[in-house]
Amino acid sequence: MSTVFNFTFVPWFRSVAPYIHKFRNQTFVVGLTGEAIAAGKLQSIVQDLAMIQAMGVKIVLVHGFRPQVNEQLAAKGHAAQYSHGMRITDPVALDCAQEAAGQLRYEIEAAFSQGLPNTPMAGSRVRVISGNFLTARPVGIVDGVNFQHTGLVRKVDVEGIRRTLESQALVLISPFGFSPTGEAFNLSMEEVATRVASELRADKLLFLTEVAGVRTQPLEPASEDNPIDTELPLAAARRLLAQLPPSLQPSDVGFYLQHCVRACEHGVERSHILPFAVDGALLLEIYVHDGIGTMVIDEKLEELREATIDDVGGIIQLIEPFERDGTLVKRDRTEIERDIASYTVIEHDGVIFGCAALHPYPEARTAEMAAVTVSSQSQGTGDGEKLLKRIEQRARMLGMDSIFVLTTRTMHWFLKRGFAPVDPDWLPEARKRKYNWDRKSQVLVKNLSP
After folding, report:
1. Please, which residues have CB within 8 angstroms of residue 230's CB and are 6 or more apart in sequence?
2. Does residue 124 have a pLDDT over 80?
3. What is the CA radius of gyration of the chain?
4. Cys bridge to 47: 33, 105, 120, 406, which one at CB 3.0-4.6 A?
């Protein structure tokens, strides 16, 4: 059994490693429904969040409390009231919401404080910090309905949340906001999570919900022929929402989808709808290639693709400043036009912000990654890593065993991404003949694993 475990665990763990590296220092906002807590899933979800944070992810956890508030209302003989998909929060409902929020916050903090031996929480040190990060305003009267103490997010204390995350703490936010006069307002978890993710420009917004996601045929029942659509482009998600009736209940197809779309429209790269009923749903979505549930992804603002002849002007405009300061070797237009099929570009809303070329040397089973450029406006956003990944994919498809670069100023960037320095004599003969010994470029090589 031990041998079988070793042979399965080691390859699996190695396959997870790229995702661990990728998401380190990224910010995830997790929207946890009150239904998940009521279903007894809190402990396992907390364990998964603790592991994710231990791997370098900054986490903001926004919890809901819909069923808990309804339970409190029922105990007091008071009916829950809804309109337009929102709770009408009268004084009794406000008291119930405050009681439920306090109890849930206690339970969540207690769950993160556990560290029993032989459990996933053994040795964990998760500091949970909550606070008055939200300013709210009243919904007011809509179509003659007075929502009383139901509110909407007016402002998010982005700087306060970021400082807390930088202190290695997990930020816990209850769906409550306060007006400048100190009045409390009951908010929806979905709106709070969406606004916080948007204001933080979070890398991911993940809803742990009672639904499995959005199916390929959204209005048809679940079946083998109607699986969950694991990746939904933002444009397609918008079209789907336009076709659906208003979503008022959490079980409605568009209820969580509308918040995912709104987040992507406001700078969140990816938003997810995950089923809390599946054990380890967060881990499966984040660290497994195919994931689980539905991911909405913004394709409009950024596209990574192979270049065409129409991109020559944009590539020249991008690389010219780096040629002038000596970072890149000068290339004339004719050379770029001739090699345009070798280029990969990143296009943001019609503008090229990054490029790289791949020049193979089949006789040596290696290829040169050249003209690697990311616009100064886009540096630090991960575009360089995206270009490198695509170039590696293209090299593997061509049967190359390695890729190499020649650089004078960006050596450390490549070293951090798996390249190793070699002597210029390592270069393939055809490339060695073109090597500029006066420029003294560093030669760096990266082996491509199968």
Report:
1. 213, 290, 291, 292, 293, 294, 295
2. no
3. 26
4. 120
318-323: Cβ within 8 A, 24+ apart: 318/352, 318/353, 318/354, 318/355, 318/373, 318/375, 319/355, 319/371, 319/373, 321/376, 322/373
SS3 81: coil
- Rounded CA gap, 124 and 127, in Å? 10
Residue 231, CA distances (Å) to 162, 236, 296 in order = 29, 10, 6
Structure tokens at 450: 């199968």
Amino acid 82 reads Y
**First-to-last CA distance in the chain?**
27
CA dist 36 and 188 (Å) reads 15
pLDDT of residue 222: 86
Helix 234-243 crosses helix 254-265 at what angle (to 10 degrees)? 140
Residue with token string 């590296």: 21
Question: pLDDT by residue (tens digit) across 345-402?
Answer: 998 656 788 999 999 999 999 999 999 999 876 677 678 888 999 999 999 999 999 9
The per-residue pLDDT for 438 is: 84
What confidence category does residue 301 fall into, taking pLDDT thresholds of 50, 70 and 90?
A: very low
Strand residue runs (E) in 213-312:
231-233, 270-275, 294-297, 302-306
The C-alpha atoms of residue 210 and residue 34 are separated, in whole angstroms, by 10
